[in-house]
Amino acid sequence: MGVWTRFTVTGADRPCGQAVRHHHYTGGVRALFISNPQATTTTSRSRDVIVRALASDVSLEVVQTEYRNHAKELAGEAVEKGYDLVISLGGDGTVNEVVNGILSAPADLPRPAYAALPGGSANVFIRSLGLPTDPIEATGAVLEALRSGSRREVGLGQIDDPEDGRYFTFCAGFGWDADVVHEVERQRRRGLRASPVLYVGIAFQMFVRGRALRDPSLTVETPGRRPVSDLSFALVTNTSPWTYAGSVALRPTPRSRLELGLDAFAMTQVNPVLAGKILRKMLSPKGVDPRGRGYLTWHDKQKFTIRSQRPRAFQIDGEYLGHREQVNFRSIPKALRIVG
After folding, report:
1. Is a pLDDT exceeding 70 seen at residue 2?
2. Which Pfam families does the record associate with it (predicted)?
């Protein structure tokens, strides 16, 4: 578990990288600020500006993550320690860890509200909340929501598995997109930065090669409908867009909303011409139509099961979770209280 060093902030004398206990605010809101120092689009200077701004309105404690799943541990501790609010600064991976930390704590404990500030390259969940992509501007929006008392409840997706009950905030994918995530993680271990250029480049290479896209081994099952087989790529979404190519949104399930159940998209035919047409629809402001040639969509469902005839790559919120042959999904309405 994380070890937190506490001391009072006095102007600019805060040692870099240590936890902070701010005593100047008496409004009663206790907040834990979890910062990922490896976040790709923030600097230590911007983090200091954000911390000072937040500490003017809440009793703030600050801690930095040091390893994978550290944010989950820290968020779980925040629940156990009775914090009113958890704030994170990082990318989609940090958001996923914090959400799972809050929701995996003992069920009899009150859940703190959550405010997510953008620090990654994509920030899909944060953008879907309507927050600015600039972390300083997003901090301003969160502070306005805190002062006005604005809160909202959003639904999440969950892997419904006794051995793995992970929540996801915006998407889970079987096949091509998970292959891309897996390769990006391999490249990161070799020292490359996880930038939008890297994601787009790898996705394009795999699209051109087409091996994963031409593997019709997937089946999607939903209650009350016949299973649909011979699918080459499938994803389940909790909101729209599914992801971003740089600043451009990709919308395979444009009707997907945080306030509804889960949506899904699956490809039934794959050839370069047809796949190119579907991709152009995804890149359009309107997104993919509910029905069309070469794909199927499902809208506002409470449960999904995706099976594969052989182990296929699987990801949630941009994190590769290994190769699997079956994943069960369910929608968890009003799972999380959001500030901002």
Report:
1. no
2. DAGK_cat (PF00781)
